[in-house]
Amino acid sequence: MEQILGQDWTITPAGGSTGEAYYAQRDSKRLFLKRNSSPFLAVLSAEGIVPKLVWTKRMENGDVITAQQWLEGRELSPEEIKHPRVAQLLSKIHHSSELLDLLMRLGKRPLDPENILQELKNNEQNASFINTQIEIHQAVRYLENQLPYVQNQKKVVCHCDMNHNNWLLTNSGQLYLIDWDNAMVADPAMDLGMILHWYIPREEWDVWLETYGVEFDEQLLVRMHWYIIAQTVSFIQWHKHRKEENQAARWLEDLKRLMVKLGIINI
């Protein structure tokens, strides 16, 4: 990073799972740097969904470094996800034809639920998961049974990680959705299921979805259930593959609670 900015910049790691993000500061100038971020970032910046993209530079080794405004602010608390501004921004993303067109031109193929299920089943049958908990097997069977009800749905740009710490509220009051590394072209129920199940009380779903711009119905409910189960199983498998047993166990408990709530299993 120093060869791009110069020795008079102070560069510190910004954390995150990839270890490829940095903060840079020189006097009053501050930037957020990332290595090999998606070209998608430029359109997200132009749409006001992420902080402004300042520049993009390609290094001699082929890496691409992007610099964005470093804005003072904070992540949203879990309770703040209920705010109408969150629903409105997510609706803007899901209904943007510009974002969808670019992501498709970048080679992102629409995510088919049948392919999601097949990948989960392949992981389940992998030798490292042979002794895994019965709940994962039950979840996969549920996904198989419900598959016909989630196929052939309209696809949009999905962020795919609705964690509250990806929602940035700046000190000036601007709301952003950051960390787009896992973006997909998929059923909007993927994002909606995560955000509603994790953060919104069940009795408030109708109002939240009305602000988002859709009417709550049984078909949407089935699709959200399908994707939240699939994503939770995927998280378990991902952590187990990385031998992060404590994290896998926490997601497994979430899966159990979710399947009990949905009536898939009994206590």
Automatic annotation (TrEMBL):
Pfam families: APH (PF01636). InterPro entries: Aminoglycoside_PTrfase (IPR002575), CcrZ_PhaseVar_Mediator (IPR052077), Kinase-like_dom_sf (IPR011009), Prot_kinase_dom (IPR000719). Residues 7-267 form the Protein kinase domain. Coiled coil: none annotated. This is Phosphotransferase. It comes from Pontibacillus salicampi.
